[in-house]
Amino acid sequence: MWIWVKKNQLNVIKQLDLSRKPSLKRERKASKTPISETDIKKAKSLENNSHRSLGQTDEERKALQDDAIKRLEKEKGRELTKMEKMTTMKALVMMKTNSIKKKKVGENGEEIDEYSDEDDGQGGKRKSLKQRMKDRVLYARKAGEEFGQHVDDGEKISQETACNLKHFAWGSANMPPKSEWLKQGIPLHPAEGLFAYGVRAPRNGTRNFLICLNAYFLKHLLFDTGKKKNTTSKRYRRVKEEKTSQMVGYWGQVLKPSEKIQTDMFCGGLAEILFRVADGNEAVFCLPGSDNCFEPSAHYGIDGVTEKLRLFTIKKEEDLKTLIKRYVTNLWADNGTGLLSILYSIMLSRNFDRLKADMQDQHNNSLIDPMGECTQCLLNLVVIGRATPYLHNGEMQVEQEETGEFVERAGAIGRNDIGFLLWEKDQLRTEKWGLGSRMKTPTLPMWVTKVNGQIGVLFNPNKELMRSYNAENRFQLYYYSDAEFKKEERKDTVLTIDTRTKIDKHITQKDEMDDGDLDDDMQEAPLQLAIKTKWEGADIDWHGVHAYV
Question: Which is nearest to 303 in space by CA: 179, 120, 438, 389?
Fold first, then answer.
């Protein structure tokens, strides 16, 4: 960075630069603070010095800094991370030090402020930074160039594959994707803050799909131990129990991951989903490039994404994590194509023949309904790796509504790492789904919940919960669905489940009625009813939080 100054100011600038370097080393050695915090202090110090050179007071400097950060947070719709705040302060330093004022003496002896200008090589003066910023021209970019890295490698998608993708996802090759799916990324809440483990889900059809993905992000945050260990030895179990008991008070810190840990859980979760649906075969990851990969025919409807896809076929899960990490900013971008790319990647990894077989009698329907909502086939595809529309255990005779005949249909083949709990308006409608014990009893204490059509995640950070029957006497479950809260009410939703005493309730017509038809004093939160389909008669404490689900 070049700073143009007069000779009488040269000593001041040299003194500023040279004296800062050793002090920075001493500061790091003495305090042993993380590099990121030290860099922020350095940026603040440089920013302070640049403003002193401009003659600004500390109050003016602070106001300018706060204003810049607030404007950025307003544009992004969220709080800035430490790294983003540091970058903002550095940008302020560059803008201000590049426009340091000089003093010149006028005809009457008065001092006149003058911006540091450079000779333009044509006998004149180059415009000041302020004037150049004012005169700049903004040019439009091509679609797909706004976010992250350019995608120029990978295999180009064929028109046949693109038509199949649109047929299974939207119902027809001519059918355009829903607008809310076309421009939606997979953004996370700011790192190291409340809900840093969760996605920011809009109030539209993409919401349920995003929360299902979030279940696997949480799985990798809480339970991904990396190298496999001998978990059968008594010593391992004893040490594990001691560590778990010591960490009970620190789960709040675990659920506020740093940006690096967010990236790891994000990439690990997506990689696991893709290899799970691939079922032993190669996984496929796709992202749109800048140009069309084929010349569309008349029966194909251009949507700006599907015809531009580049496909990456991966054999190993670790290689897939590395690839996703390379393009993670493309997937996180708020108005990008990250969500649609992951939807297509899941479908391609499963392949179209297996999708058709999974969907059974629903194979003529699309994975996303005409209203833009996820079908049960798509939810099951993400959660258990198979696009079955059924939730019962194994093979079962199911009565067809049109003919009344009984046909064999496949549900959950085995236990899954993540379970599924359901409540649909009332007891009768809930029982029609035939939710099996395999879905209710996962190997990890995590459940995707579907309560009156709304998806959420229930989880407990203690892996041992599902290995001990006694541990299920009284325990806690976190619930996350990215619900909207008032600022003063924002906190983790933690429920205490007590199964030691069965709560006797008076049998009324309540189960035969919709929740909306009940009086306030008769209503029970639908989420509680979903939980009680597994822990019947349990007492559930919301700890003062309004039962919003």
Answer: 179
